[in-house]
Amino acid sequence: xxxxxxxxxxxxxxxxxxxxxxxxxxxxxxxxxxxxxxxxxxxxxxxxxxxxxxxxxxxxxxxxxxxxxxxxxxxxxxxxxxxxxxxxxxxxxxxxxxxxxxxxxxxxxxxxxxxxxxxxxxxxxxxxxxxxxxxxxxxxxxxxxxxxxxxxxxxxxxxxxxxxxxxxxxxxxxxxxxxxxxxxxxxxxxxxxxxxxxxxxxxxxxxxxxxxxxxxxxxxxxxxxxxxxxxxxxxxxxxxxxxxxxxxxxxxxxxxxxxxxxxxxxxxxxxxxxxxxxxxxxxxxxxxxxxxxxxxxxxxxxxxxxxxxxxxxxxxxxxxxxxxxxxxxxxxxxxxxxxxxxxxxxxxxxxxxxxxxxxxxxxxxxxxxxxxxxxxxxxxxxxxxxxxxx
Length: 390
What we know:
Helix content: 10-25%
Distance between the termini: 51 Å
Number of strands: 19
Strand content: 35-45%
Number of helices: 4
Largest sheet: 10 strands, mixed
Number of domains: 1
Low-confidence stretches: 1-6
Radius of gyration: 20 Å
Order of helices and strands: EEEHEEEEEEEEEEEEEEEEHHH
Shape: globular
Mean pLDDT: 91
């Protein structure tokens, strides 16, 4: 394993960034820093520089289906050795969450257990005048299969770390639903570590919150791993959403597929209409990762004036002995050919545009596990479109 270098100094690849669990090891970030250049720093409520409101313990509730066997839920101290297995934070805000939290939640799926129904983890904001910190670690032992829904609701300022440890021949599907009230701020760092022949399915849906920034990272610890990362997001006026991903192919013969789709709509009637999203997708293929097969794509629909989407896909390839690697990103308005086709079939322009938006998201939503979750996300998109002149 390549040793990390000191904070704020040159590094070989994006997979070799400086890491630490101690917030004091990081410099205070600024808006001119590369990894923060899209973020409105003034809206972080002090999570980046230590000026946040009083720290409190996060409100985390875990619901295990009655039919499930082999599932253990624990609240542990921050020095529990099971925490941090996927790696330490790579930035000051996630290190702040580790330093400031008083406890963490660990959910373990026993070896060879199969849990067909979802385990639901709900994080509820603590409201104004406080800042909540926490950590959630999901461990799927060898040969086990599990589905986890991670749901964020309520108001407040929250920062946390999520870890997913997927053992050899294990399978984990995770759905992260950012369903905050529109005044919430959430910074979340996510790290997944995949064992031999492990399968990891990760889906993110971001609809609520004033500012939501997620940093998912996947690293293959042994050959044969398979990772899929999906995302849907819909930003309204005054909202800022950022997804900043890293897939680290550190082992041979692993696969990854990344597909995120987003839509944005501002409110042209306001003086300073602004809906913003940023998506940065990094895929690193190390020198020893022969046989890698990877593709990443980000698609964005800008529905109104006063909306801006930034999309930055990146590939770092250190070996030519791969099965395939590619990336794509688009930011644009409606597909004119699709719109013309629907209009020619007698569908009015407003309904045609709504059908296009729903169809745009369906490619991702149809691949998210759980019928109830898919129906909920479809309903969220319908709710976003109601009252909007497209």
